[in-house]
Amino acid sequence: MNKRAQLLKQLFDLKVAHDRASAVLLRISRAAVNINSGAPLILTRELLQEYRDAAKEAKLCASQAQIIVAEI
After folding, report:
1. Which superkingdom, per the lineage (predicted)?
2. How much is the pLDDT for 61?
3. Is the pTM of this model over 0.90?
4. Average pLDDT, consecutive stretches of 10 residues, N- to C-terminus, the chain (72 residues)
5. What span, in angstroms and rounded, lies between the C-alpha atoms of 18 and 1?
6. Helix (H, G, I), strand (E, B) or coil at 2
7. What burial letters (b/e) apply to 27-37, b meaning 16+ CB within 10 Å?
8. Burial of 21 by CB count in 10 Å (0-12 exposed, 13-18 middle, 19+ buried)?
9. Where exactly are the structural domains of the chain?
């Protein structure tokens, strides 16, 4: 696969990872609003871990895209 195709694939993967992290962050924000209004706690350790994993994936994709750009 040539470098431009690799870069496009990596940028697509970055967008997917970022979208996943954004969706999880939205769920975390909603949990924070519920906590503030006195509703039962729906924020879980697993939800925070899911966000951490999604953010890690996005960071990895960005790093890999950066390496490809440096090689072009």
Report:
1. Bacteria
2. 95
3. no
4. 91 96 93 80 88 96 94 87
5. 24
6. coil
7. eeeebeeeeee
8. buried
9. 1-22+44-72
